[in-house]
Amino acid sequence: MTVVTPVYPPSVGGAEAVHFQVAQALSQVADVTVLTADLNARGSGPAPPSDPPLAAGTGPNVRYLPSYRIFGERCIRPRWLWRALREARPDVLWTNAPSLTGDLGSVFGRLHGVPWLAVYHGDLRADRPYARPYGRFETRWLRAADGVFVYTDTYARRLVSRGLRSERLHVVPPGPMVEPALEPVSRAPRESSGPDPDHPFLFVGGLDSPRSYKRPELFLRALALLLARGVAAPAWIVGEGDRRPALEEEATRLGLNPSVRFRGRLSDLELAECYASAWALVLPSTSTEGFGIVILEALRAGCPAVVSPAMPSAELFESMGCARVFRPESVEGLAAALTVLASGSERTRLARAAAEASSRFGWSVSLPRFVGPILAAAHRHRGARRSGGAEG
Questions:
Q1: Do 261 and 352 share a domain, yes or no?
Q2: Are residues 282 and 251 in the same domain?
Q3: Residues 214 and 342 grouped into a single domain
Q4: CATH code of 302's domain
Q5: What is the pLDDT of residues 171-210, one digit of tens each?
């Protein structure tokens, strides 16, 4: 079977984590080839298609193929992708959407009678001029898939309203990205009256242009509003990217120094310690945020979250009582939610719910639900192929 994706480790992100974990799990029971864009290759410049597996002998065969940059995405060149697919002769294809690379892979599957399943990570950013027409095309194209994975019931309802059949949808939350061995044991909520420099509000996410939908600037403006009202609001900003200098300048302009610290990119261990120390995780993303894996990582450290109502996972975490959804979706709304959460009693209530909710999420829970439909489709295809050969 073959995984077709423009994103894969060693690049880092939520989509990469899902592709890596599923490909690793599938490789334990089948021969798996991952076809991905050369942007993800180690070192400088494109990696040749004959690159060795990421973890030789223990996982899938990963091939980094030449790609173009189109609409901010690395799209594998069709000639290289289809040549690699012909060589792989897959029983099933697993792709990601929305993605030009994934669409090219699924076209190959339809033309050659190979079943394909896709994971729909989230809608395109609304500010992109091509978002609406491409989004309409993508959801129509997905109607032909043998199965579509989404992370939340919110997205399942959204895709059904766009014409996808509910019986082909699989709602499977992802697992966290932080290595389990590095996670601190969930701690009892701290007995503290409010956030302080050692227990600050926390933002975790890429500070690059493609991830501007995470809106760290909204967080900074809310912190400035709290500061003006006399509410202690220390914060750590964890992440790296081309927008970091501008965000640091914004923090200075708003008078947030030294209460706001930009921590850069951290190791898994350092990040786990941040979650365990933080007063609350703050993620003010737009609806482009497919799920928010960092919320799962925070919950397992007993750290509650403050999230935007636009996020598809907001409804889920709010219903579990481990996150506060800020309304209205504005600087004032976020500042109001942070003010309430600055109360020690409110933070304690949410932190207890966070520790309880964390057991519901993890790769041990999610992977069988990803792998099962993919293997079932491959089994049906092999059976049909054998039957056709016998009849011939």
A1: yes
A2: yes
A3: yes
A4: 3.40.50.2000
A5: 999 988 875 545 544 454 455 678 889 999 999 999 988 8
Rounded Cα–Cα distance for residues 112 and 114 (Å):
6
More confident residue, 55 or 361: 361
> Which two structure tokens, joined as six digits, stand for 150?
């989404």
Tell me whether residue 263 is exposed, middle or buried, using C-beta atoms within 10 angstroms of its C-beta: 0 to 12, 13 to 18, 19 or more. middle
